[in-house]
Amino acid sequence: MTHPNSPPAPGPLLTTTEVAALFGVTPGTAALWAKDGKLDAIRTPGGRWRFPESPVRALLNWSQR
User: What is the pTM (predicted TM-score) of this model?
Assistant: First the structure.
């Protein structure tokens, strides 16, 4: 998990809802994965999780093997 004060990740960011849809889980599960450090994520100033698209897609592709 990225430190909350680190600069934004390069490239597009996905929401918890978008990540949840990709993996077929609930947005709450995607948020738990972020909190537990299972997916690279940053927190917005409003407290929302955002996920760099590239690592999410890489994990999704790996999990579909």
Answer: 0.80
Crossing angle (nearest 10°) for helices 27-35 and 16-23: 110
pLDDT tens digits for range 36-61: 999 999 999 999 999 999 999 999 99
Q: Are 37 and 3 in contact (CB under 8 A)?
A: no
The answer to whether 34 and 14 have CB atoms below 8 angstroms apart is no
Q: Is the distance from CB of 41 to CB of 49 less than 8 angstroms?
A: yes
13-63, what's its fold? Multidrug-efflux Transporter Regulator; Chain: A; Domain 2 (1.10.1660)
